[in-house]
Amino acid sequence: MSSPPAPSPKRHPRTVLDHRIETAAECSIETLWRHREAGLVDAPHSALADAHRDLVRAERDVTFHRARLARLVSGELPVDQALLARIERTVDQLAHTIDERDTEQAKAAAALEPIEAAAPPQAHQQVSTKDFAALLAIAQGAKLHENLITHRLAVATPSRTRISYAQLQRLQMSGLVDRDTSHPVHAGQPVTLTDAGRAVLAAPRPAGPPGTTPSPGPAASRAPAPLRR
Prior knowledge:
Elements: H1 18-25, H2 29-37, H3 43-72, H4 81-118, H5 129-139, E1 142-146, E2 153-156, H6 165-173, E3 177-179, E4 189-193, H7 195-202, H8 218-221
Antiparallel strand pairs: 1-2, 1-4, 3-4
């Protein structure tokens, strides 16, 4: 049986802790790994980088065995007792790698906590009304799909809120949402809120769009008429 390749800082599967780590470290995962290798970070950040690297390796093992299982049950191979035995072995291996991934995830979270605790509190990010509506829809469950004929990308949500791919990319760049790229896009990549995205929904909303104040109504914009005697 072949083994998954070793994790690379340039191409690694996303983990559930990536956004929290990048926020606490104030740099990308790739930068954190490079700084760790160059000895440019302190002990807590070094421990975090090492723990995250182990988590990535475990996440890649999960992806590897899940893809292997998907091939076995895809219908490409003849169905016989040998196939059933291979499926059983692969399921056992997948379960084992999931347990290892969960263990490494707990270790990485423990290494992250002291860095988050030492970080100064950040103000909640303000978003437009349209982006706020998109975050609400994504909170209910969303997937990015690719049409197999037109190859157009679209986000499907239970509320049928229209979310373009460009808007999804903008929300990702802002660190408000994340998508599971381990799933093929034609089958649907789950889109979820990050901690920052959930904080935006939980924060009080301003009366108007970010950076603006409510415009006065007609009565407030006119001076009172003088009294007639």
